[in-house]
Design brief:
- With 389 residues, the protein is of the alpha+beta class.
- The chain has 2 domains: 248 residues, Naphthalene 1,2-dioxygenase Alpha Subunit, Chain A, domain 1; 109 residues, Rieske Iron-sulfur Protein.
- The chain has 7 helices and 19 strands.
- A 7-stranded antiparallel β-sheet has the order 11-19-18-17-16-13-12.
- It is elongated.
- The structure holds FE2/S2 (inorganic) cluster (FES) and fe (ii) ion.
- FE2/S2 (inorganic) cluster binds next to loops.
- InterPro entries: Cholesterol_7-desaturase (IPR050584), Homotrim_ring_OHase_catalytic (IPR021028), Rieske_2Fe-2S (IPR017941), Rieske_2Fe-2S_sf (IPR036922).
- It holds the Pfam family Aromatic_hydrox.
- GO terms for molecular function: 2 iron, 2 sulfur cluster binding; dioxygenase activity; metal ion binding; monooxygenase activity; oxidoreductase activity, acting on paired donors, with incorporation or reduction of molecular oxygen.
- Keywords: 2Fe-2S, Dioxygenase, Iron, Iron-sulfur, Metal-binding, Oxidoreductase.
Length: 389
Amino acid sequence: MTNTDERRRTPRAGTGRQDWSTWPHYDAAASGFRGYWYPVTWSSHVTGTPRAHQICGDKITLIRDGGRAYALHDRCPHRGIPLSMGNQQFPGTLSCVYHGWTFGLDDGELKAVITDGPDSRICGKVRVRTYPVEERLGMVWVYVPLAGEPPHPIDEQLPEELVSTPFVMGGRIDPRPGNWRFACENGYDEGHAKYLHRTSLWRLFKAMPTWNLTRIERKGRWVFRVQEEQFWSADFPGLGTWSNQRWWKLRPPKAKASNIGNTGAAKKIDPVIAAQEFPGFASVSMPGVLRIAYPKFIHYEFYVPVDDKSHRYVGVMVNFAEGLATLRFYAKYLGFVRWLFHGQFSGQDAAMVEATDAPPERLYRPDVSLTTWRALAEEEYGTKLEALK
Ligand code: FES
Ligand SMILES: [Fe+2]
């Protein structure tokens, strides 16, 4: 028996589960894992006018003052009016629209009550919760605490290659229905891309394998999907042959899969991407970050929990170009990547995420991708909770 035959016959750990009791932290994280940084909106959308947002079930308002972005709990402690309905009456503060309670942006303390005069006795005795804020990748990120703990540095959580290497990027932030875990699982799901996306315009001229043999490899904070063997057509006993190849699609590469790019095309790889030595082209890390490495660019998806029923899809495409090559990237991104990849292709995923209804579920061999991601989340979150004790 060859190794391949053996793998085909050995049931993988993690298949056949009906519920999520194996991963209690993950099961409980319907509204997201607290204790992480999340991208909320584009930096350019945070202005002197406060706006309402929601992450991990927390209602927050974002406002910019003196060039800095601030995040406050979006609820006036007086009578519960959203502070995002208010506006700024004094620099460094935000006033509630109803009775003019005025809070400091940096510490949330009640600094003045306009309708109670300068000697209002309640000043300094009330505070609105504030959230740590950072700006990265052209977005405002907010730390959602577990229990009032100080945040870890955001750079520890970003994909390592985005911390100090120069890059250009294009992206979309779309509010989407469906639980964030379904979105993350869909992103990392081994089995779906070659079948669901075979009809997408993005894949119009590129054949996808019928199926793969996949191994999962852990490296640092990430788990990688490693494609060991690709099968471009398959004979299904008693049914016939099935293949995604068509005469108008490029032939699949003959060379061995390079592990960069999902068809294993042996193209020249960008030196920054090559230097990362990714074991596989798809990887996922906490708190729901997907990284798909192609030969010339990397695509990221951040699944930001809004509440238990909806999330924000943040799709970012990064190219490590400098100088004139950045113009080529922008032309390509705005010309078609944004519409075909971040639009129509990703829209197929959005439809599946909205329609997913699990658990109960009955997993199959490629779902080792899902169970490994859940195990990673379970382990990392357990360690985080232990550290806070
Ligand atoms: S409800 Fe905010 S000031 Fe009264
Ligand atoms: Fe997909």
